[in-house]
Every structure is written in structure tokens, then in C-alpha cells.
Amino acid sequence: MPAFLTGLPALAAAPAAPWAQTGPADLLLAAALAALGALAGAAAARAVPLFARHDPGPDDDTPPPPPTCPHCLRTVPFHRLLPAPRAGAVPLRGRCPSCAARLAAPPGLSAATAALFAATGLGLGVEGAARAPLWLAALLLLAALSVLLSAVDIRVHRLPNALVLTAYPLAVALVGGAALLAPLTDPAAGPAPVDLAGAVGPLAGMAGLSAFYWLLWFIHPAGMGWGDVKLAGLVGLYLGGLGFGAVFSATFAAFLGSAAYGLVMVLLGRATRRTQIPFGPFMLGGALLVLLVGDPSRLLL
């Protein structure tokens, strides 16, 4: 077991802990997080219309457009270290900061984020959340970002830098902090110093999964988007601390889910073998499945 997981038994042992022993306090935590998720999802959904589709030709080096108001076509700046617009008018009021036009947020994002936040609360439980608040915050960040990125990828087939790359600093801080501080909150291990080795797993997962997706993109660029490569490091960061099995399981689930979805769409006559399918939602869905429900590969070891 990776070092930092000794302080997070609810995560290391998959669904063996809170899901099987959910109490009233856990349900209350899930309800509170669901309310928070509904608010976060509603705010995040207002940024979706800012991203336009970008389909360059084979010889076109034009980069994707920055976040832009669909009404006045002015750029909407985002924070460099946060996946959020600088102007509060977008998340708070759903309006362009330049022309004040209303931004039409897609439906369902608020409910989806609320459901993932509630699942996170049930997965960790009150005890796990109290012992690892940074890990809880990290999972909530991933949940909110997953819904937002999935909506954007489905809508415009892009995983924008303004949402992916800007999420790395906060995600690294939260996941790394949870890994380093886990020995301090592990009652079974007793008093222990900060374990620098605990950060090896998340960093190795980030580097390894990035390299894997980069290799796939290098071999067949038409079959793997560059945005997927950039997202892979973020996904690997979260999964790396749970070990290689978790990274493999989540990656396998992503490809399996994507293939199954594509097959169903072809059988229904709504796609062909050449139809491009957004892969980001499957990457994020596979990661969340392993993180919140458990790593199925552990059953084989």
C-alpha cells in the first residue's frame, strides 16, 4: 500500500468502509455537500458557453480561441492558477463582464455536480473527511471540474487550457498536501512525521499517465486529442497514490466505456466508425469510479 494511504483507509480499501457502513452523520454530510455541489455546478455551468469549437485543417497551426463571449466576441480572462473566470459576473450572475449579455448555461450541470459531491461524502464518510480534509477538498475539486470539462468536451470537442492547465496548481497542492499530512492523522500508526515519500505515488501517476497518453497521441494523433494528453496528468495525479492498479483500472474503464458508447451509437445509426467521440468524459468518469467506489484490480491481487 502506498505510504500516504495508510492514513486514508477508506480510500485504500475501496468500498469496504463508508459505503457499507453509512450512518446518519454520513448522510447529513452527503446532503450538505450536495447543496454545495448544486451551487458550484450552477456557477461553473455559466462558463460553458465561453468556449467555441475549433476544427483546424491539416496545415492550420491556429491555436484554439480563448474563452470568448458568444455575443460581443470579447475575450473573457481566466485566472492563471484557478479554472475560473476572473470576472465574478460570469459565475455569479451568468453575464458577460463586457456586454452584460446573459450566458445560456446548459441544463443538468448543477444536478450532476450535486450528485458527485454527495457521492464523495458517502465515499469518504464523516470520519474520513475529518481525518483527511485536504483529500476531501481535492475530490470535490475533481468532481466539479469533471462535470464542467465533460460538458465543454461534449459541446465543442475541446479540453481548454483555461480549465485543464489552470487546475494543476490547486490539485497538486491539495493531493500533495493530503499525501504528506496523512501520517499525522492516522490513529493506527500513532504520531509520525510528515512523510515526503507519500508524494511519490501521485507525482509518479501524473508523469506516467501523461507519458502513456502522449505516446498514444504520438503514434496516432487523429485518434487521441492533445487535450486528453494534458488532462491525463491531472487524472494520474489523483490515481497515482492508490497505486498502479488504480491507474490501470481507471484507464481501462475509460477506453472500455468509450468503446461501448461508440458501438451503441453506431448500432443506433447516430455515428459511424469515423465519428469523433469526446474522450475526456470517459477519462474523468473512470477516475471518479475508481476513487469513489474502489479499485477492482485489488480483488485480483
TrEMBL record:
Main EC class the enzyme belongs to: hydrolase
Keyword Zinc-finger appears in the UniProt entry: no
GO CC, alphabetical: plasma membrane
Transmembrane annotation, as ranges: 28-48, 103-126, 132-151, 163-184, 196-219, 231-256, 276-294
MF (Gene Ontology): aspartic-type endopeptidase activity
Enzyme Commission code(s) on record: 3.4.23.43
Keyword tags: Hydrolase, Membrane, Transmembrane, Transmembrane helix
BP-aspect Gene Ontology terms: signal peptide processing
PANTHER family per record: PREPILIN LEADER PEPTIDASE_N-METHYLTRANSFERASE-RELATED (PTHR30487:SF0), TYPE 4 PREPILIN-LIKE PROTEINS LEADER PEPTIDE-PROCESSING ENZYME (PTHR30487)
Descriptive protein name: Prepilin peptidase
Organism expressing this protein natively: Streptomonospora mangrovi
